[in-house]
């Protein structure tokens, strides 16, 4: 939402008065030529910041006072030029000149404070709006809620959203979706789901797969797999068709929690709907099968994946190497590592850490030391605390106290 569109409802009455600008000139409206010029310049979208400031300086000195809608359009154009600081300065000077803002002006000011991440000042503007006997509108609510969201104050944003709703202010779908996404990002998934259901009732919008997906993802990420599946089923019941992203989230959650038969059921359902699995789906199945030690099934999935033109990525190899090391299959793990290198893929820190842990657990201290030195001299690898802990614990376990201390 750009400032030019801000407060369309609150500006409508002011806009109607613009017709007077185009009436034949009289002594009473002789100043209108400047306003018409400002109006036209703003409409072109080519107004420069320095020109906007020149126009503003002329407007505030004009008598009789220009229409507030003229200032609104000028402020809106300056906002498009990322001039939030300039808008605040111009607003302050306008007020000192005795020119009263309307709701549209105040909304633009709130937007300026939002852009500067000073939304607390936006609430001061809200207080001024109500003090002057005006009612905030959906644009006011949008900017206040979004400002809080992007300053990390998500629960405060939800509280403001609820209060605005109680005042009869209807928000659009985009604000609901932003709040839902932010609630999911802080783990308030059930609140996000409740808000999503409220959105469906309030806006007659059944939602989309992206919004449902953010809720499913949050549930799965927090290991509430059944809740995530319930949302998936609710989505399909509401007539929203799942895509590979939504199926992938459910398959990932089930696979990572050892529920492989259910994961395969959703995989088969996805294929039956002519939705092609992507690398994320295959990697999820591979992880689940590796975790359960079903190596023959892993080989079949990798073969199937490659037959469809998808090559294993670093994530695939990392999963195979990590799980093979944990299963004491070091020779197989190093063979997978060599294959990864031969295919031109660069190992990352996770690859090396898994191999280090496997080598140390398997009493191959010399090989572990060589690999550690290789990592230290690789400019693309930044050793982590985890890496050093693996080495220290490995040496300590095998009685190499001096090496551990070093």
Architecture overview:
The structure is a single chain. The protein has 406 residues and is mainly alpha-helical. The chain folds into 4 domains: 1-20 and 30-157, Serine Threonine Protein Phosphatase 5, Tetratricopeptide repeat; 172-238, Tetratricopeptide repeat domain (Serine Threonine Protein Phosphatase 5, Tetratricopeptide repeat), CATH 1.25.40.10; 242-309, no CATH class; 311-406, Tetratricopeptide repeat domain (Serine Threonine Protein Phosphatase 5, Tetratricopeptide repeat). 71% of the residues lie in helices and 0% in strands. The protein has 23 helices and no strands. It has helices at 8-16, 32-44, 49-61, 68-80, 84-96, 103-115, 119-131, 138-149, 154-166, 173-185, 189-203, 209-221, 225-237, 244-256, 260-272, 279-291, 295-307, 314-326, 330-342, 349-361, 365-376, 385-397, 401-405. Helix 2 runs parallel beside helix 4 (68-80), helix 5 packs antiparallel against helix 6 and helix 16 (279-291) packs parallel to helix 18 (314-326). Mean pLDDT is 90; it is low at 1-31. This is Putative pentatricopeptide repeat-containing protein, mitochondrial. GO terms for molecular function: mRNA binding. It comes from Noccaea caerulescens. Keywords: Repeat. Pfam families: PPR, PPR_1, PPR_2.
